[in-house]
Amino acid sequence: DVKVTQSSRYLVKRTGEKVFLECVQDMDHENMFWYRQDPGLGLRLIYFSYDVKMKEKGDIPEGYSVSREKKERFSLILESASTNQTSMYLCASSSMEFDSGRYEQYFGPGTRLTVT
Amino acid sequence: AQSVTQPDIHITVSEGASLELRCNYSYGATPYLFWYVQSPGQGLQLLLKYFSGDTLVQGIKGFEAEFKRSQSSFNLRKPSVHWSDAAEYFCAADDYKLSFGAGTTVTVRA
Fold first, then answer.
1. What's the CA angle centered on A68, arms A67 and A70, to 5 degrees?
2. A3-28: per-residue pLDDT in tens?
3. Counting beta carbons within 10 angstroms of the beta carbon of residue B78, is it exposed (0 to 12), middle (13 to 18) or buried (19 or more)?
4. Which residues of B30-64 are buried (b: 16+ CB within 10 A; e: fewer)?
5. On the CB side of A77, how many CA atoms lie within 13 Å of its CA?
6. Residues on chain B bordering chain A, Cβ-to-Cβ distance under 8 angstroms
C-alpha cells in the first residue's frame, strides 16, 4: 500500500516562529503536493513538485515555501507563522502516469497547525 | 476560471435511505474526476474516479457516480446509507492540477 506520512498530527506554534512540516512517501512517486484545508473552502493547493529540487506555486503560495532535496521527502515551510495560517495541512503524492487510468493522488493523515 | 462546485454544504439522511451528492465542474475539456471521503480525524480516501469510458463508475464502500457531460456533473450515489458513511465528501477535478469542491458534510440519523 502507498503510504504518505506527515511528521506531526498536531502542532502548536507562536506567531513569528519558523515552522517546518515534513512529508514522506514510500512509493517512489515523482509528484508531491501540499494543500491546506479550511471549513467551507475545501482543499487549496499551496505548492507542488514534479521532481527533486523542483517546485511550482499553487493557488495560495503566499507566506509559504517548500523544499524537496530527496525524492521521497517534501517539506512545507512557514517562514514567519501567522494566526491566519492556522489550518489543516495535507500532503499528497502521485506518479507521473497521468494518462494511464491508474493516476490518483494519495494523501497523508494531515497536520493540524494552530498558530497562537 | 476552472472550478468544482458542490452545491450542498450539509445533507442529513436516515440510515438505510439513499444518498446523492452533487458535483458540477467548469472546465474547457473534461478533466479527470474524483470523489474523496474524509471521516472525522482521518485523511482523504479515494472513493472512485472517472477518466473515460463507461459513465457509471463503481467505487468502494458501495458508492457509485455518474458522469454526465451535457450537465458537466459527476454526482455520487449510494442506495442505502450506513451510519459509518457520516463524513465529509469532496469532489475533485484534475487536468494536471487537482482542484477540490468545498465539500459536503453528510450526517446520518438513526
1. 145
2. 899 999 999 999 999 999 999 999 99
3. buried
4. bbbbbbbbbeeeebbebbbbbbeeeeebebeeebb
5. 9
6. 4, 6, 9, 32, 34, 36, 42-46, 49, 51-52, 90, 92, 94, 96-103
